[in-house]
Task: structure prediction
Amino acid sequence: MTSHTLQVADLPLHHADPFDRILIAQARHEGWPLLTADRALNPYGPPVELV
Result:
């Protein structure tokens, strides 16, 4: 398993879409911001930035 995949398992289930959860885990792992208009991702906090 990759470290991105392992981080997905540790995320709280604020958002059920698995692809979005992978994006959040990848952004956290890489230290990148995740720019999105999807307000359902906001509870994850950084790196999520609403635009």
